[in-house]
Each structure stands twice: as structure tokens, then as C-alpha cells.
Design a protein that fits this description.
Elements lengths: L1 H34 L5 H25 L7 H9 L8 H25 L2 H4 L11 H25 L4 H19 L9 H10 L6 H26 L3 H8 L1
Helix pairs in contact: 1-2, 1-4, 2-7, 3-6, 3-9, 4-8, 6-7, 6-9, 8-9
């Protein structure tokens, strides 16, 4: 029963996250125009980073209120493979990942249903701009870098929560910007599935190869690198407590 409740919470949080994602671009454009800095690329990056930080804070609080819900399968897998999620198992992920994918579909359908037409025309999901192998490598490497950075920042990073948040947000924005010319990017299989379902591409092997196998492989490798090379040793942890 606990797994079912967790899966339902994941589906809800994922749908909410994906529905709010288009507003990042909308708010960035409006804030840049208001400040008169729309022609300065660095200003747009800074504004986006601040907005991502705010979104992550809000959704972290909501996720905690829902009992530890997650909106990204790669994050769940990375923390599990790194040994940081003792309450998770392959069985729970086998239930929660499809629930997150279903939440992705609900989130994208909500975007198509409720956003004004002029805004929907500016909203696009992940799209493959390269061949399958390059797309797989792009999603895998970017997810590897993102997950490894998040693990290091959260576990071994600065103690100041605001600094942690800004570092995570800037890393996310950097990875998304880097992958834009390859796969969109997604770095979140649930998000990719939602858009693929709406665009009738969810039944293609190429889609799962690029947007599921790539990110999940990258997340697993990042977790193993962190666990065996970068994770604080039990001895050092005990020393800090003394």
C-alpha cells in the first residue's frame, strides 16, 4: 500500500511540475522585457536560474508534504543507486516510474488544454535533432553530469541551503542549455514521455532508447561514481558527529 501511495504522489507531483515548466520561459521573457535586458543572454540565464531555484524550493516542499514524492525517475534512480534511499527498491521503482510517466502525460495534456493559444505555440517538448546514437549519448552524458553534480552538491557541498539551491539551479540550466541542440533536452523520462504521448511518438523504440535508456544509464553511472569514489566514508561521518 505504501508503494501505491508513493506512486500516486509521484504522478501528482510530476503532472504539476511539467505543467509549470512552460511558465519558466514565459516569466523569463516578461521579466527580461520589464528590466530591459532581453538582448543580454547572460541576464536571461540569471533570471532563469533564479526562477528554477524558486521552483525547486516549492516542489521540494510539496514533495516532502506528499511523503517524499519525486517528479524525475533519474533523480530517484540516482539516489537509490548511490545508497541514499534505503526505503526504495527495484519493485517500488517499477511501480513509481510508470506513475511518473502517467503524470507527465497529464501535465502535458493540461498545458495543451489550459494555456492560451498564443502561449501554446511557444511551448515545445523535447525533440530529437540528431541521430539516435548521438541523442542517446547526449541524454546519457548530460544526465550523468547533472546527477553527479546534484549528489555532490547535496551531500558534500556547502552547508548554506541557499548556496546549494543556486548551485543546483545553475547546473540544471547549464545542462539544459547544452543539450538544447541535441535532444531538447529532457533529462527527465517522465517529461519526455508526456510530450511523446501527445505527439504519438511514445510507441517508438528510438524514443525509449534516447529518452529513457540514455538518462537512466547516465543516472546509474553517476550514482556509482559518487558512491564508490566521492561519497563520504563512514569514518569521516562518525568523526564529524563526535
Amino acid at each position: 500500500m505504501g508503494v501505491i501511495k508513493s506512486a500516486m504522489a509521484d504522478a501528482l507531483l510530476t503532472s504539476m511540475w511539467i505543467f509549470t515548466m512552460p511558465f519558466l520561459r514565459i516569466f523569463t521573457l516578461h521579466i527580461s522585457a520589464f528590466l530591459g535586458v532581453q538582448t543580454i543572454p547572460l541576464a536571461a540565464v540569471l533570471i532563469t536560474t533564479i526562477l528554477v531555484s524558486l521552483m525547486v524550493t516549492i516542489f521540494t516542499l510539496i514533495g516532502n508534504a506528499l511523503g517524499g514524492a519525486s517528479f524525475n525517475p533519474t533523480a530517484s534512480l540516482a539516489f537509490y543507486a548511490a545508497g541514499l534511499k534505503k526505503d526504495m527498491s527495484f519493485l517500488s521503482m517499477a511501480v513509481r516510474f510508470p506513475a511518473q510517466a502517467a503524470g507527465g502525460v497529464v501535465g502535458v495534456k493540461a498545458i495543451m488544454r489550459f494555456l492560451p493559444r498564443e502561449l501554446k505555440e511557444t511551448v515545445k517538448g523535447p525533440s530529437l535533432k540528431v541521430d539516435l546514437q548521438t541523442g542517446f549519448l547526449a541524454e546519457g552524458l548530460l544526465t550523468f553530469g547533472l546527477c553527479l553534480a546534484l549528489l555532490v552538491i547535496l551531500i558534500r557541498g556547502p552547508k548554506n541551503p541557499l548556496v546549494k539551491l543556486l548551485l543546483m539551479a545553475s547546473t540544471t540550466v547549464g545542462c539544459v542549455g547544452t543539450g538544447a541542440k541535441y535532444t531538447g533536452p529532457s533529462l527527465n523520462p517522465a517529461n519526455a514521455f508526456g510530450w511523446a504521448y501527445v505527439n504519438n511518438w511514445h510507441n517508438s523504440w528510438g524514443f525509449y532508447y534516447v529518452y529513457w535508456l540514455g538518462p537512466l544509464t547516465g543516472a546509474t553511472l553517476a550514482a556509482w561514481v559518487f558512491r564508490f569514489l566521492l561519497s563520504p566514508s563512514p569514518t569521516s561521518t562518525k568523526d564529524k558527529k563526535v
